[in-house]
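Show me a record, fold above all:
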Amino acid sequence: MPASNTPKRKTAKPAAASEPFTPPAQHVWLAGLGAMAKAQEQGSKAMEALLNDGLAFQRKSQAEAQQRLQEATERLSHLASDFGQQATGRVDKLEHLFEDRVAKALHRLGMPSLLDIQMLNERVAQLEAQLAALQVTRASAARKKPRSPSA
């Protein structure tokens, strides 16, 4: 049997310089194969180095993601606070407008306002104080006045 009848293995050819574009998936595949070949050549040291690089990259990515998350949380809480303040301001304006309209309607119906009632309460308190003082002076004058005998 001649040796020429045995099938020959085809060896993978590196991407030819004549190919202007190699797809990104193929780049990733080739990089993985290269990393595997390097790992086989250099043994466990290369694997440890790749592992350490991967861990460092993961920590860096997690720290960056955590920072971005915190910034987004701060922005959202600030926006929520601003929105709450705006809503409170609008509710206050609406409440004030409602109170004014109710007060005008009550005034048209002849109902006294809170200020009118407060002024009346103060006036009643003053009159009660004057009346009490007058009663005290009359009572003391009546005690001092001797009774005249009836003829």
Observations:
- The first helix runs from residue 24 to 42.
